[in-house]
Structures are given as structure tokens and as C-alpha cells.
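lol forgot to send this yesterday, sorry. C-alpha cells for the thing we talked abt
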């Protein structure tokens, strides 16, 4: 049956017998039927060429002996591979093959109708299988893509977590570990179980005079210097954790040490690395650092303890001049802590009235009269007993607490001295020590004036003792204040003269009335053969007199010294020979 029913009706008009043996005509009709049924990544001509090849295969299959359905499967699969892969595309393909293939190509076999039906079924089967395989493939690749995407996302997350962690634990300027990471590592080294028997050390490093670099060259140069120092430390101290704690402070953690020497070696390497001059932004900068070293057994220490000790030790290295290391010394630390505790207790001790004054006579070498008395402060400490000024004045000066303490001394001395009276109507003056901070305070003149008015003490009966070094370092303003006081009649004495760098020519321009020559010069008078000391003292006295200054010798312990000083022309003496520091009542007894 060459012409199935309806085939003529569906055949395009104008199909002539010449066309009937041409697979190109059929392929064109096929291409027209399927185009638009799905997206095809090829041109119309490419599609026609493909379909023409398939047409030839189908035609060959229809007439081949034996009849082989696999050709149909392959055509179905190829259609799918060429993206003619929709239900509609398959439908039109089946339709156009059924209606036109046999006719257009003029194929004739006995069982063509039967073969056609089975071939179409094979095309559809191949098509469906290929489509299923492709869908499975697509699903698989979607699954794979999803897996890959997830792995990528996880990697990105891990990377950003790592970045975040790095930022949180590193210093942005130098990229060294920061305080957080250092504290973590130190904590782990000290608190991890099983490490108690180990030893460890830290080097706490601070650049010397870094502030000067910042102030004179600007912060940018300062920052660049820090980066240079950080690089050098990192390179020189490989294997140890080097962290920047902030500013110009760095710290090195040395784990599992065998003793102090191990940490000393690290400190030496750090100092050597820093010491090279650094060229930053065209400036050659001399760099040095100070290091505080602590090395100890892990058991029994804590991170806080260790770092506080390292900090104190760093200050010792600085105080010793810098450009060096210092090693922690527990005894020294205890002493200093006690000193700090003592100074912190001064305000409360003032409130509770724990301070009192002793007075030591200043005696005329001409007639033995008591011309003055020096007020010397003492602290009746509730636990430590009576404390001499040497144990707390220095610290009070450093912390500034000398201002309230010295103010109290001044007021108390003026109040006490006002009541001193003598038969001849010329009672002694009271001599009060002034610390440098008190001299530099703007309100000094007002304070003294107020006290004199309040207590009724005449200005001539107050002497202020200022050490030589205070006087030398005093700027114009405080000197003017002293001059106002001197003009009021207040006496100004230079204390411990000869221990500083003062010279008499300089004193000429200062409002000074008296020199108190330091005890060590007087001590030289003890041995009869030390005539040189005596000559020096003698010329000092005559020079002072030429400048209208009186001279009091301190630390006069023997009658011999007193006699020599008198012979030299010294005006007054102070010391155990004349009387030790004693309570105010004893001074009153002397005056009677
Ligand atoms: P300074 O002003 O030179 O006081 C004299 C010190 O020498 C006193 O020591 C006194 O006890 C001691 N001394 C007196 N005679 C002799 C002697 O013959 N031989 C020896 N070896 N020493 C003698 P002190 O009372 O311990 O005072 C020490 C220093 O404390 C004073 O030295 C003074 O610089 C300071 N100071 C005392 N009271 C005050 C105060 O109220 N304010 C301030 N800022 N400093 C004070
Ligand atoms: Mg004094
Ligand atoms: Mg003195």
C-alpha cells in the first residue's frame, strides 16, 4: 500500500514525482514541522542537514533486510541530542514521517506499513530513553553543581571567618599578634593542665624616647618606625610569639625555658635588632629600647602577676637610662610596692593627724643663741611605727602628694613658731623645707601670705629651705614668686648647698638670704689633717658674705667641728652637737 489514506491530503501541493525520490524535500518538510517546538541551538540549514541524514537512515532502515529497529532508536536519540526534545517535537516528527516519508522517497516494500509502525515506535522509544537519560544527566549535573556551590560557599565562609579571626587577633598597623592573642597564648601556656612544671618567660619591650619621634617628625613617621621595629623583631625572634600591645610596647613570649639565660638571649637579640638606625621617610632615626624580663616556673604564677612584674621591671630598665634590659627582682618589687602603698596612704594619714613635726635648733656660732629651728616632718604610722621623711618624702614628691603634705607642714610650723618667745625679744625663726612642686605651684605667694596673716607670725620669722637643684631648675615665674616673698621679709635658704651644681655667681641674681652647707663638707672637718676642706669652706663662707648671704653648716656632730666652723667665720651650725630634732616643747624649754 503505497498511498495510505489521508496521505495525499497531507502532502504539500506541488509535490511532483521528481521530488519523490529526494530526501532533501522530506527533510525540509520535517525541519519546518519541528522548528519552533523547542529552542534549537543551530541554524535552519544545519537543522535541515541533520534531518536529511536522519531521513536517509530511516529510509535505509525501512527497506533493509533484515529489518533492524536499532536505527529507529538511534534516530530518536539523535533528535534529543540535537535538542529537538519536546513532546510536540516528537509528535510532529512522528506525524511527518508517517504521512510523507514513504511517499516522498518513493519507498516500496511489501510490509512497508507494518515496518513503518514499528520504526516509528522505535524512534519514539529511542527518543524517550535519550530524553530520560538527558534528564537524569541534567539532574546529576544539577546535584553536582549544587554540591560544588555548597563547598565553595563553605570555603568562602571559612576564609572570611579566618580573616575575621585574624583581624580580631592582630594589630592592623604592624600585623603582629595583638594583646588579645598574646593574652590567649600566655593564658594557655600558664593554665593548660600538665604544664605546671614548665618554665616560661616574657620580654616586655618599650622604645626609648618614642614620643620625641612622634612629636618632632609626626605620627606618620612614628607609625612607619613601629612597622620597621615590628619587622625586625619578627625576623630576629622567629619561633617566639612577638606581639604589639599598643603604642610602642611590644612583648615576646618565651615558652619552655630552661632558666633566665634563655630569656636573656632573646632580650639581647631583640635589643640588637632594634638598635640599628632606621631610615624612615628620609629621616635617619636612632632607635633603642628597654626591656623588662621575667622568667619563672609556670606553677604558682598567673598571667596578671607575670605581666605586672614585667611592667615594673621595664620601668627599672628605663630608670637606669634605657637601651638595656632589667631582670625581675622580687625583693625590689616588694620594696617598691610597699613604698607605693605608703604614698597612697598619705591623704588618709593627713586626715587622721598621723604626721607631726620635730624641730632642730640652728645655733649661732658667735654666741650660742638659738637663732632658728628647722621643722622636720615625721609620720606616726599605725603599723610601721615612726617613719623618717626619707622613707616617704621622695615618693610624695613623685606623686604630687607633697603638695597637701607640705602645705600642712608649712601651716603647722607657722602656727607653732608664733608662740616662741625669748627674754631678749628676738625669738628664733622657723625653717621649713619646700619641695620643688610646692615652689612651682602658682598659689605659693598667696598661701604663705595667708598663713602669716592667719597665724600672726612675722615674715622675718619664717625661712623657706629650697634645695640647690630645685633652685637651678626653676623657671622665671617661681623665682619671681620667691622674690615677692623675700621682699615681704621671708628668709630664703639654699638647702644642702654643695651637693648640686649651683654656683655663687648665679645665686647673686636670686632672692636668697642664706646658704645651708651640706653636712658632707662639715664631715671633712673631722680629721685634723684635712686642711684642704677647711680652706674650701673658708673661701665659700667669705664669698657668701660678700654676696650678703649668711652661712649655716649642717651636720655638726662634734665640738671640734663647731670650733673650726666658728674660726672660719661660719654664722650658724645645725647638728647633733647642738641638738637633735625634738618635739616643739623641747625647743620652748631651750628658749626659756
Ligand atoms: P634636710 O633638710 O637637710 O634636714 C636635715 C637632716 O639632717 C634631717 O634629717 C636631720 O635629722 C639630719 N641631721 C641633723 N643633724 C645631723 C647630724 O649632726 N648628723 C647627721 N648625720 N644628720 C643630721 P631628716 O629629719 O631625716 O630629714 C631628711 C630630709 O627630709 C631633710 O633633709 C629634708 O630634705 C627632708 N624633709 C624633712 N621634712 C620635710 C618637709 O616637711 N618637707 C620636705 N619637702 N622635705 C622634708
Ligand atoms: Mg632642710
Ligand atoms: Mg639640709
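and heres what i got for the seq, position by position
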Amino acid at each position: 500500500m503505497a498511498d495510505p489514506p489521508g496521505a495525499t491530503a497531507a502532502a504539500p501541493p506541488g509535490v511532483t514525482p521528481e521530488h519523490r525520490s529526494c530526501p532533501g524535500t522530506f527533510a525540509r518538510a520535517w525541519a519546518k514541522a519541528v522548528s519552533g517546538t523547542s529552542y534549537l541551538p543551530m541554524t535552519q540549514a544545519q537543522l535541515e542537514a541533520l534531518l536529511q541524514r536522519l531521513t536517509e537512515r530511516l529510509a535505509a532502515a525501512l527497506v533493509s533486510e533484515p529489518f533492524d529497529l536499532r536505527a529507529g532508536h538511534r534516530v530518536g536519540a539523535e533528535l534529543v541530542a540535537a535538542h529537538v526534545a519536546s513532546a510536540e517535537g516528537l509528535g510532529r516528527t512522528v506525524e511527518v514521517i508517517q504521512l510523507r516519508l514513504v511517499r516522498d522517497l518513493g519507498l516500496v516494500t511489501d510490509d512497508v506499513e507494518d515496518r513503518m509502525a514499528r520504526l516509528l515506535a522505535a524512534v519514539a522509544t529511542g527518543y524517550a530513553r535519550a530524553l530520560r537519560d538527558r534528564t537524569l544527566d541534567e539532574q546529576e549535573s544539577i546535584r553536582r553543581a549544587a554540591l560544588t556551590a555548597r563547598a565553595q560557599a563553605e570555603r568562602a565562609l571559612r576564609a572570611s571567618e579566618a580573616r575575621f579571626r585574624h583581624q580580631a587577633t592582630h594589630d592592623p598597623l604592624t600585623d603582629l599578634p595583638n594583646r588579645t592573642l598574646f593574652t590567649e597564648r600566655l593564658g594557655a601556656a600558664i593554665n593548660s593542665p600538665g604544664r605546671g612544671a614548665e618554665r616560661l618567660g616574657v620580654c616586655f619591650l618599650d622604645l626609648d624616647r618614642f614620643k620625641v619621634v612622634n612629636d618632632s617628625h609626626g605620627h606618620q613617621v612614628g607609625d612607619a618606625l613601629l612597622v620597621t621595629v615590628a619587622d625586625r623583631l619578627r625576623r630576629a625572634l622567629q619561633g617566639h610569639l612577638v606581639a604589639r600591645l599598643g603604642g610602642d610596647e611590644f612583648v615576646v613570649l618565651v615558652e619552655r625555658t630552661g632558666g633566665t639565660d634563655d630569656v636573656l638571649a632573646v632580650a639581647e637579640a631583640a635589643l640588637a635588632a632594634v638598635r640599628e638606625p632606621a631610615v624612615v621617610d628620609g629621616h635617619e632615626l636612632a632607635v633603642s629600647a628597654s626591656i623588662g624580663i621575667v622568667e619563672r616556673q609556670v606553677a604558682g604564677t598567673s598571667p596578671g602577676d607575670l605581666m605586672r612584674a614585667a611592667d615594673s621591671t621595664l620601668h627599672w630598665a628605663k630608670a637606669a637610662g634605657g637601651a638595656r634590659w632589667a631582670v625581675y627582682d622580687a625583693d625590689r618589687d616588694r620594696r617598691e610596692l610597699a613604698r607605693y602603698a605608703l604614698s597612697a596612704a598619705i591623704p588618709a594619714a593627713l586626715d587622721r593627724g598621723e604626721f607631726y613635726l620635730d624641730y632642730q635648733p640652728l645655733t649661732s656660732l658667735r654666741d650660742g643663741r638659738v637663732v632658728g629651728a628647722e621643722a622636720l616632718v615625721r609620720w606616726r604610722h599605725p603599723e610601721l611605727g615612726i617613719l623618717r621623711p626619707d622613707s616617704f618624702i621622695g615618693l610624695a614628691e613623685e606623686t604630687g602628694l607633697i603638695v597637701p603634705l607640705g602645705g600642712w607642714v608649712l601651716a603647722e610650723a607657722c602656727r607653732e613658731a608664733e608662740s616662741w618667745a625669748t627674754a631678749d625679744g628676738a625669738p628664733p625663726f622657723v625653717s621649713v623645707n619646700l619641695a620643688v612642686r610646692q615652689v612651682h605651684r602658682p598659689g605659693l605667694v598667696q598661701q604663705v601670705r595667708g598663713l602669716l596673716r592667719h597665724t600672726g607670725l612675722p615674715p622675718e620669722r619664717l625661712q623657706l629651705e629650697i634645695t640647690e637643684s630645685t633652685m637651678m631648675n626653676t623657671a622665671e615665674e617661681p623665682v619671681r614668686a620667691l622674690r615677692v616673698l623675700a621682699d615681704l621679709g621671708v628668709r630664703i635658704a639654699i638647702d644642702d648647698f654643695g651637693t648640686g651644681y649651683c654656683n655663687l655667681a648665679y645665686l647673686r641674681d636670686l632672692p636668697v638670704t642664706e646658704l645651708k652647707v651640706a653636712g658632707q663638707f662639715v664631715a671633712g672637718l673631722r680629721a685634723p689633717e684635712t686642711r684642704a676642706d677647711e680652706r674650701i669652706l673658708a673661701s665659700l663662707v667669705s664669698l657668701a658674705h660678700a654676696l650678703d648671704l649668711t652661712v649655716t653648716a649642717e651636720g655638726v656632730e662634734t665640738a671640734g667641728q663647731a670650733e673650726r666652723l666658728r674660726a672660719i667665720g661660719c654664722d650658724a651650725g645645725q647638728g647633733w652637737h647642738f641638738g637633735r630634732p625634738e618635739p616643739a616643747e623641747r625647743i620652748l624649754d631651750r628658749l626659756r
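Residues 374, 433, 465, 495 surround magnesium ion (ligand 2) (CB under 6 Å). anyway ping me if u want another try
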